[in-house]
Design the sequence.
């Protein structure tokens, strides 16, 4: 089977990573590549690493340019996907890397993003356990629409889901996650341009103010089948890629062997790995791979669970998840075109 794909937002970080992965995917032929203001310029001017596509010129992002493809990846700024997606046929698989279709509740969309809610699509975190004992991947098989998760919700939901699902922690969790700058996208922002970010770490969206808070709440509440409170603090770090999340929650008195809970939860998952005891996740180890590395510890003085998790924000945090979900939706082996091997050093 060969599927013809288009990428809207091909000049950006997420679109570029989708293309990097798809260039190694055996079942894909790359069709239209579109952009916003950079339409008309060569792809190579924006993605110098994508040499096999050196002859490609970016087109304007329109439904017409994206028509005639089996799969369309949308890697556009928030709020730009919904209108475009509505113009793409129901028979086309649309994989949206943006936030437009992630949140189920309209009030949450309006509070955190503003404007009209476009409705929710099947959420693209295949490994997420559901309260009924199934996994989220069951909702992705054969779907024609996928809402790819945000990068912070991916890593923190996977870090906490086993403990929440097994009901071994109190339903109030704390996440502090350090991210590389590519998470913010290419669009120039003065605080990302160099001097301010290099050699410095800075927290932002503090005090429950980041728009990923409701997404993490939504995921963990789905896992628990009851409301879960989330205190989330993101931190910007001077590195191009990667997120390291430190997540914690109060253990119940009778929690038992939490490590065994994690080992069982992810035993059959190809991309989520509980590291052997004594090893700790690092962003460097998952660079360019679709892997999530986890390690768990119990603070005996506080009886608190601490989970450390690492992902590459552009791979499992966006484009890798997008390709993984495409595989599921098309009935291909879930791991096709995706690696769990990072780049070191
Ligand atoms: N970066 C990350 O780690 C993650 C990103 N995402 C999501 O992926 C999406 C893309 O993010 P990212 O690649 O980082 O962002 P970038 O800023 O790097 O890229 C944005 C892309 O969208 C295009 N674009 C911008 N405005 C318009 C417009 N009005 N009409 C058509 N195209 C437009 C840009 O084209 P041009 O070059 O012409 O301006 C560019 O191709 C976002 O929704 C983001 O939330 C999700 C998870 C993680
Ligand atoms: C470092 C940084 O700025 N990160 C981004 C999150 C990127 C991401 O995954 O999320 P979306 O797809 O929801 O944009 C932020 O905090 O807004």
Sequence:
């Amino acid at each position: 089977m060969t599927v013809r794909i288009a990428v809207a937002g091909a000049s950006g970080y997420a679109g570029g990573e989708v293309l990097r992965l798809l260039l190694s995917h055996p079942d894909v032929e790359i069709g239209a590549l579109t952009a916003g203001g950079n339409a008309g310029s060569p792809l190579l001017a924006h993605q110098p690493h994508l040499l096999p596509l050196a002859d490609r010129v970016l087109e304007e992002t329109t439904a017409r340019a994206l028509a005639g493809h089996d799969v369309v990846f949308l890697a556009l700024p928030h709020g730009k996907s919904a209108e475009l997606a509505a113009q793409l046929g129901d028979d086309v698989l649309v994989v949206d890397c943006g936030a437009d279709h992630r949140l189920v509740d309209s009030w949450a969309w309006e509070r955190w993003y503003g404007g009209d809610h476009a409705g929710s699509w099947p959420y693209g975190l295949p490994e997420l356990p559901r309260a009924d004992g199934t996994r989220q991947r069951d909702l992705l098989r054969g779907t024609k629409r996928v809402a790819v998760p945000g990068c912070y919700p991916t890593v923190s939901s996977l870090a906490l889901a086993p403990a929440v699902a097994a009901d071994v922690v109190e339903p109030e969790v704390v996440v502090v996650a350090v991210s590389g700058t590519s998470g913010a996208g290419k669009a120039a922002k003065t605080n990302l341009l160099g001097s301010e970010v290099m050699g410095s770490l800075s927290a932002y969206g503090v005090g429950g103010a980041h728009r990923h808070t409701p997404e993490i709440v939504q995921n963990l509440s789905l896992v628990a089948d009851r409301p879960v409170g989330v205190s989330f603090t993101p931190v910007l770090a001077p590195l191009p890629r990667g997120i390291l999340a430190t997540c914690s929650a109060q253990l119940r008195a009778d929690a038992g062997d939490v490590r065994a809970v994690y080992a069982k939860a992810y035993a059959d998952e190809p991309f989520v790995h509980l590291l052997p005891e004594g090893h700790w996740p690092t962003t460097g180890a998952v660079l360019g791979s679709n892997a999530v590395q986890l390690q768990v510890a119990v603070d005996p003085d506080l009886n608190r669970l601490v989970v450390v998790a690492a992902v590459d924000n552009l791979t499992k945090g966006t484009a890798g998840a997008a390709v993984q979900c495409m595989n599921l939706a098309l009935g291909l082996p879930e791991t096709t075109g995706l690696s769990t091997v990072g780049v070191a050093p």
Notes: The pocket of NDP (ligand 1) is lined by residues 9-15, 35-38, 61, 75-78, 80, 97-99, 150-151, 182-183, 185-187, 313-314, 317-318 (CB under 6 Å).
